[in-house]
Amino acid sequence: MDINTMILVLRSLGDGEIKPRIKNLGLIYEINDMELTLEKINEYRENELLLPVSRYSYPACSTCNSTALHIIFECPTCKGRMLTKHDMIVHYECSYIAPADEFKSNYADVLYKCPKCGKQLSKVGIDYGRPGFGFRCEKCKFITQYPVIRVECDNGHTSNIYDLNMVIFEGYKVSDTVNNLAGVYEELVTAAKMLKNYGLKADVLCKVTGASGAVHIIPFMLKDEMNLIIDYIPNPNDAMQWFKIIARSIDLANALSIVVTDKPIDAHILTTFNTSRIRVIYNKDGLRLSELIVQEVLKMVEDQV
Ligand SMILES: [Zn+2]
Ligand SMILES: [Zn+2]
Ligand SMILES: [Zn+2]
């Protein structure tokens, strides 16, 4: 914010006060040092990049469900929040309790003197006690070791600690889709670069919205004249993976799918889908995936001409 804007903002404040306020992000997910919001996580989950594996519960504001909470100490007598913390001394004879600093005497031979009754304190445990730390309310001067603990959310709602709600969030692991893609990502990028030399534009890891409104993450897609999708399934005999590819091919009705596999596919799985819309290429010669993709795409482009 530049200084001109700042001056306008300050002027708009009028008689209002600028108060310090504890703000934090509330709940976020973190991968290494990267922070992901709940919205991002939900998006990845919908795209089946993440799978929920566990559940965690957190206290949340009972008014707005915010998880960005901080603790407030209140004076039990006047509800004031301006508390200070001190090492305390109590004078047994007159029961006066106050911060140790207030008992310091001005005389070299006397360490402590009671500011209330004026008597000297000589023996700890006999004349006076050291109960430890306590809190003093700066409004009403009440001293306590147990301030009232309340909780405030980042939207400013205050509540008693046991009135908080509990909200549940899931923990996630990356899915097989991500692991499969991560393993061949470099190869897909290489294939896209090679095809560019032939004037063909390919996208790696792009998002496409289907007829149902669902968003699909496509590993490799050739857009221009034909909508060609390339998937890589190292183990082609897991029926679940085919189910996803078949569902996607119904949702993306004008796209053709090529599925590259490292193993031959079972004949009975082949019968479950329309082979004119989904073609399976078994990489039996162990070609690099990038070479195989370029070879297949160029063959198809030739066939079209
Ligand atoms: Zn709230
Ligand atoms: Zn008070
Ligand atoms: Zn005293």
Structure description:
With 305 residues, the protein is of the alpha+beta class. The chain has three domains: 20-69 and 154-173, no CATH class; 76-146, no CATH class; 176-304, Trna Endonuclease, Chain: A, domain 1 (3-Layer(aba) Sandwich), CATH 3.40.1350.10. It contains six helices and 18 strands. A five-stranded mixed sheet has the order 14-15-16-17-18. A four-stranded antiparallel sheet has the order 6-5-9-10, with no helix packed on it. Helix 5 links the parallel strand 17 and strand 18 (278-282). The site of one zinc ion (ZN) has 8 residues, from loops.
How many structural domains are formed by the residues?
3
Summing up helix and strand content along with how strands pair, one would put the structural category as alpha+beta
Number of strands: 18
In the CATH hierarchy, what is the class of the largest domain?
Answer: Alpha Beta
Q: Spans of 5+ residues with little confidence (pLDDT < 50)?
A: none
Cα-to-Cα separation, first versus last residue? 57 Å
Number of helices: 6
Order of helices and strands: HEEHEEEEEEEEEEEHEEEHEHEH
**CATH architecture assignment name of the largest domain:** 3-Layer(aba) Sandwich
Shape: elongated
Taken as a percent bin, the fraction of beta residues is: 25-35%
Output the radius of gyration. Answer: 34 Å
CATH topology of the largest domain: Trna Endonuclease, Chain: A, domain 1
**Residues in helix, %:** 10-25%
Overall pLDDT metric: 89
Walk across the major sheet and give the strand order. 14-15-16-17-18
- Identify the bound ligands: zinc ion
Biggest β-sheet, characterized? 5 strands, mixed
